[in-house]
Model the fold of this input.
Amino acid sequence: MARSAGGVKQPWFNLSTGNGLYHHHASWNDDLRVPFKAMSGYIGSSRRAKSIDRPIKQILERKERITAEYRGLLQTDEDRQAFDQNLGLARTVATFIEDHAFIIHDWYHSVEWNKVREFGRFLVNAHS
Done:
């Protein structure tokens, strides 16, 4: 059974072509050239037998190393306790920063900027 384009595109193609904070950063939903270009890169890697998997182990090791380095810069037990509490909260809310980036910078901002554009067109048409 074939899936509709809308079923695949929503919400997963709400990825921004930039950081999502500016009106000119279109989402994949608005410009499908971006995901198709990425797919051609993945296909090329696959044909060369190159893995496209994320290096999760290395990412987690780097995250722990950097966290320990920043924690090591703190001078007082009070500061380290506050750091640990905030770190725990941050890791509960978004295991990977990409989670936050997708939900806020990509998904939310893509929808928001499209609504702003839609409202702008409404104002222009209402004035005409």
Notes: The mean pLDDT is 86.
